[in-house]
């Protein structure tokens, strides 16, 4: 995978998209759905993975957009 994995995480103002290793959010959205859509677009463009966190901060879903012909299953 070439790009940074994108994380969808809870934020004071709703939900944020944050690149792995970044301390600041790439973007902030009112709903988790909006954040997921934006994060998925970035992950697709970078050939990276989208990791969706729940309100408790734990990863609840992964979505791989890398070039791996055998991506990890759920």
Protein architecture, described:
- Pfam families: DUF2188.
- Residues 1-74 are annotated as: Disordered.
- InterPro entries: DUF2188.
- With 74 residues, this protein is α+β, with helices and mostly antiparallel strands.
- It has one domain (6-64).
- Helices cover 20% and strands 35% of the residues.
- It contains one helix and five strands.
- The protein has one helix at 32-46, and strands at 6-11, 14-19, 27-29, 49-53, 59-64.
- It has a five-stranded mixed sheet, with helices on one face.
- The two termini are 17 Å apart.
Instruction: State the order of secondary-structure elements, H for helix, E for strand.
Output: EEEHEE
- In total, the number of domains comes to 1
Q: Beta fraction of the residues?
A: 35-45%
Task: Compute the average pLDDT.
Answer: 90
Count of DSSP-assigned helices: 1
């Amino acid at each position: 995978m070439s790009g940074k994995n994108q994380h969808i995480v809870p934020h004071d103002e709703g939900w944020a998209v944050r690149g792995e290793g970044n301390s600041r959010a790439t973007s902030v959205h009112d709903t988790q759905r909006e954040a997921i859509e934006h994060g998925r677009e970035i992950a697709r463009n970078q050939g990276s993975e989208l990791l969706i966190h729940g309100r408790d901060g734990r990863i609840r879903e992964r979505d791989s957009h890398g070039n791996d012909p055998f991506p990890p299953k759920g």
